[in-house]
Amino acid sequence: MNSYPPELLAQLAPVMFVGGLDAVPPATPAAVATPTTPTAKTQDAFSTLALRLREALLAQRKVAIWQPEKAKSFQVILVDKDVRFPPRKLVSPEDPQYSAAHSPLSPLTPSSPLYPDGLIAPIWIRKHTTLVPSVFVLFMRIYEYPLQTPRSPLDAPDFERERDREQEERRRDAELSAEVAHRKKSTNERGIKLTVVLMASRRMLDDPSLDARLTYIRKQSGLDSRAALFVLSPVSPAELSDFVNSLQQALYEPALEYYTNHSKRVRRKRNRHSQVVSTYPNPATPLGSPVPARPLRPEGWTVRYEYKMACFAEFRGEDEVALKHYQDAYGMLVIMFGSTAILPPRTKRWAEAKVLADCIDVKVTKLYLYNNEHALALSHHNSHMRKFGDFSRGWGIGEETFEYWSWMARQHRILAELLEQGTRSTLSIPTHKPYTAAGTLSASQYQRGGVHALDSDAMRALGLNPSHALQHPGFYYYMAARCTELRRQRFLTAVDAEQAQQAMALSPGFANEKKVEHLVIILELYTKAYELFKKYSPAGPQGAAQGRLTLWIAYRIAQTYYDSGKFDMAVRFFERIAKTYRREKWGSMLKPLLSTWYACAQQLGDVDLSVRLLIEMLGYDAEDSEDPSLLEEDLLAVLKSTVPSSPDEPLVVDLSESRSIFDSSVIFWLPEVKVGETTAFQLSLTASIHTTITSLPFSSLVVHFSNNISPIVVQHSHDLSSSSVQRVDLGHVSSSRPDASVLQACLRWPTGGTIIFTGTMSSDVPTTLEVTRIDLTIVEGTWKIEIPLSPCNSRQGVAPVARWLSSLSPLRFTQVRRTDPSIALNSVRHRPHNIALSLSHQEPAYLDEEYPITITVTNVDERELSLMVEILLQPSDIDDAINSIVLDDQRSSGLIKGISCGVLAPGVSIVKTLYLISTGAGGDRTVDISVQSRSPTLSPDSQESSDDMTETLQTLVVPVIDPITVTQDVVYRQSLRECPGLADLATYEEEFWDDWKGGEALITTRLVCAGKWGLEVVGVQLEREDGESAKVVESSIDESGDIFPSVFLPGDEFSDISRVSLAPAEDHPTQEPIAGPGKYLINWRRYGLSLAQNGQYSPIFTSAFPLPPLSPPVEGLVALLDAPPSATLHVPFSLSLIIRNHHPSRAANITVHLEPEASDGFVVAGLRSGRLPVLLPGSEEKVTWRLIPLECGNIKIPSIRVADRRKTPATEAQPTEKESDGDLVKIIDIRLDERQVPSAPGVPSGTGEPGHAPHLGTILVLP
Q: 288 pLDDT exceeds 90?
């Protein structure tokens, strides 16, 4: 930005003049002061106050280009209190021609620097920022009468002294008012706000006459009533800062009004000039007479006024208004530059206008950035460079001139400096990332117009032009450096043309261009770009990509150092850059770097570095336009004409990260061999077809192998001739060979030539065979250079097709189809052991038994082997399955390991029995059996033992089924026990069992032999587990006698009936079943396998089958009919009906109706229709009839109906309760009482439906 006037670039702010702080006059003359008056101390306090005021005011706002803050602050300038303002016009106001006169800076004033056609001079900005303020703050001391010596309180007042004090204060106040009025007159002429700050002591602030004195001073001096007069006493720095802020707040509005009045005045002038015709006639002048000066055209006046209004708006802090006026001024400037008649090129006014256009562009760009409109800012700046680039071509300042590139570099640099200043403050550089929501928009949404739903920012993100994306400042510093390089190239072309005395039009600035240090500018710009690129490099892959650009800038810095002759600095940069380029394989960028680096080494005289660089450059192919033997000749010339820096030590050139001189590859014919077997290999070195190395004096080649195998040395023989493909036999390579072998061969590679080294390798121990390194040695004079090479390296970075030389004459290769890198390795392994593993068992297995599996391991190898067995029981996904295995003395639910089988001689077998125990549910069980064999001479924990180990695996799937399947049926019956009374003392005993509510359950259990094999059942028993709610009363198995042991073949069944009494507790949940009060224990073993080979019985296994959970029906009201199964003709018998109320809380009103018919075969005596007493919860009532049978046979019991007559509750429609017909109660014939399925939860099973007749049995009447 130093290329432009700072006045045209700085951020404008309201200007405040502050006077009276240079020297504070004493308020009390020394001659009048008494000895006791602390004059010196008071004077020091006001001096300190003035000093602090100067510091506080000057610290409010600094002159800067980037200041986006909108705080109400001023640019403060300290002046003398009698400072004079520059005249508005050249004549005095009393002159009659004052109204027609113009400003000293107007183009209409002959003495003006802009006369006659200038636009805007920086001095106009300087006038409004340093010479003319918007407000004037004047600091003055108010007079304070000296203090009187303290007297006694009893003394009378000194009225004479008081009168003198008032007269002196009035006289001093009149003088101060006259001085202020004089200053007020000069500020009023300019419309400047004058504010007076009177400095007084704290004692004066408490003086009651202070208000009257201030009123007198304001009226006499003509000060405004608002924000024109302040009083300040010496205060602390914090309070002083508050005063300065409040002072600025109070004067900010008058300052804005001052600049608003200026804008209005300039707008009126612009409107007057806009009505003038925009073309001026060119007056005819006689030949030979001087061309008269042309006045400023209306377009120029428009630029002038628009620029002034923009500046005044910027003074007011109205950025949007300023931006509009700056754009209008810039647009009119572009129109003026479009006509050479208005602005002839290469004139003074043309240069001034061009500077003004550049500065306006900076202003517009800055105002856009203030509002975070990055795209608009960059677009305007790019448009400015494009427009004036087109103008420059028309002016004869095109891309072929250094002036064009100087201007372009200046534009990029000023944008970079502006962004750099902004980022130090509030500006944030945008991040340009893809708009994710746009990527999720489907094709149908595009067709339906879904794209219109996206905002403009999203639409721009769909396809962003990189030139429209604002970058960080380093990018524009880099562009400025590139343009400066082009500027230097054009300048050097002009210098060459001047020296050659060619006919070439040199620009007026050519002489000044010779004084420019181009390389210094380029270095400065590249250095700034480098630092900023490092600062803004993000983390991650994107940061790595920008890191490469940072390295490229570092390379340009090194190139500039080279051009400027600072070769040592260039070498430092080259060393750091080359490390990354080598590691990331940037060959196209590394080659020119090496060339320049080699030139620097030549200039520095570093022969070792020159040799290293020349050898490294041999790995990069020469271009089509280059001589392929040039590098070889340069290397030979250096070796023959120089000596190394250390003749006694070889020079090692490490090319591990750089591109190698040769394409090298290693191929093993077999990927794997056994110990003691031989494998063939081939090592090939192929020279480049684009670079010549035929004359390089390679003296030897050393091939290094793995596993401490001695290397093979191949020395160059001059007696042997070279060919395009040579074959060198290395013989057999093994660890038993004591010393390194020395062979003879021709180590000269023609262009594109290949030397193939062939041989065989073997090992007596398991290992990996490979070629680890190749060392080439060059010997020339006193030079000895060692070049380590990788055995598998491709110069192009892509692995070549593996080819095996099968014939030299004729030349024939065989393609080896094997993946890399295994093709360059050969694994030597132990021979596997030969172990036979067999399993025998009789499937399926039964649950709850120890299922035997016989494992037979046989050593069929020719060596003695140490065997170890491991068993793994795979986890099962069967519910409730619990499995385990037993082998020898180890038992586990998962893994048994470390079962030693000892050392087996060849042909010897060993047998182990594995037991599988399965419980829970049936299904497949999976067992993995592993037999590990090792040599008995090795320790099991050694690494060699783990290598010489063979594992034989076999997986066994065993189906497991139930030996016995069980089905159980449950029926429920009502208890016939009478309901215990409330006063029954037996109910309070612990052993009392009340099954009146729960009843009984009959459980029928059927056991079926379901397996493939028969079972010998040794015993069956019901193990009782009586609980609080259920107990087993009796079981038929208890009376079965001694029928066990028994043999059950597949399909045979055995049944048992058990009776369970139920007495659920009152707090027992209705939905929760009652646990079965016992389980069946069945002791069994397989039939047919009961006797072992030694005559003993096989073990007995036990299977448990629990009784099912019991859920007795939920009963409410129920009627139990007790009738005899048979009767005798004409013999009376009793018929009883028991009504029970099992409901926990509701009473019942029971009515019983016996409805005999004429066809009934009985004569009934008893209740026909009647109401029973209220049946409370948990109680019962019994009704008995006497019946006489009248006929024989199965006679139906007379119809009985039992109802619960409950009252219907009152409602709004029926305000009184009404008795209903009642709900029928279910009648159960106790002879037929068997309920298998309980009722739905919450619905009493004893509730019947209206009109449903109960099912009653018959009575057999015998004669």
A: no
